[in-house]
Write a structure and sequence with these properties.
single chain; mainly alpha; Serine Threonine Protein Phosphatase 5, Tetratricopeptide repeat; 10 helices; globular; TPR-like_helical_dom_sf; Tetratricopeptide repeat protein
Amino acid sequence: MRSPIVTDDVFELYPHGPEETHQDLAEHLLALAADPHQDDEVTVGGLLVLAGEHLESAGNLTAAEDAFREAAAHRQDPKVPEPLTYLVDVLLEQDRRDEAVGIDDELQRSRPEDPNTYVAQAESWEHHGDLQRALGWVNRGLALDERTGAFHQSDVKMICQTRWRIRRALGFGADEYDQVAITIQETFSG
């Protein structure tokens, strides 16, 4: 039996030198996920998300997709990034837009509670040229916070900054949320 995984050790796994690749690290993470220890600080789902990220960085999109799909089946930790956000991005990278939209719609219906999900989805759609869908994600994130007050102020600011970038690209003028982002930009640029 292997020793338990400590969170800091896993999140510090990055290629060190030319002999170690993202593919190597992904295979290591997949092996850890396949052999969980009861005292692991990182869940199987978390290990699979990390493996998927490394596989995506290695250009192995099919294996990344598999890891994210498996991670979605192991969603039990609210601190683990939403695997479906990564899956949507990998599907879009493979020009499988219809499948990505289906997963995106499923994720919308689940009403995520993590503000990072709203930003990640918005940025993925923005990166792939669907600014309307991207704007929908940040607007839903802000609406959720308005209804529940669940997000930390820094999370709301992060959503506002993403939203303002998208709205600017769509040619919209600034509204009150965009003013939050503009104020942040002015603070850091001046």
